Amino acid sequence: MLEILIQFITPFSLWDGVALALLLLGWPVIGFWVEHEGKRRSTHSLMADYRARWMQEMLHRENRMLDANILATLRQGAAFFTSASMIGIGGSVALLGKAGTLQALATDISGELSAPKVVWEAKLMLVVALLAAAFLKFVWSHRLFGYCAVVLASVPVDPSHPDAQRYAEKSAKLNTYAARSFNRGLRAMYFALAALAWLLGAWAMIGATLITLAVLYRREFNSQSRAALLDL
Length: 232
Known about the structure:
Blueprint: H1 2-9, H2 14-35, H3 43-58, H4 65-96, H5 99-109, H6 117-153, H7 164-196, H8 202-221, H9 224-229
Helix pairs in contact: 2-7, 2-8, 3-7, 4-6, 5-6, 6-7, 7-8
């Protein structure tokens, strides 16, 4: 077993290991940073407040078709990205079957890109794994938005009903959980794109991972949309 592991690792350079470690460490770290409230709240965290407020406003609407339509739109978004991640997985698996062709093409382009077939297969498998993680998150997000719609429909029309407030809060929590899963799926897709840069070499993936982290940080903590949510 150890000999097989050594044979697998040998074709990879030290920088390949650094690039892989950076991506696999950066992915959960930025996710934790975004989802857990600190002194500087993320866009995701701020939106959770608006989702709670949405359900409080819903309590005082007799006709809740607006709320149902919004939830339907959110479900459509989750369904779209579920399909997109499936297409990405299919394309990556198809490319995985042509790893030998990819190896020959890379060698023709540049001798520096020359590597054993197992290296190309491992790089593509990383992309497939990240897209699979995204797919699972989008599927769960779609289902949670469906749960939210059902709970919303069970909220009494009379806001003074003893169960109205409690059910509205449940709906808000499910909505927030669905959005969290959706955002996790998006982050997985972002890092899948960064992993795709590994086909160009370790330095390419290091650069792509750092760019991905910078983009995610800016959008969550230093964007115009965040400023708008804060009314700055």
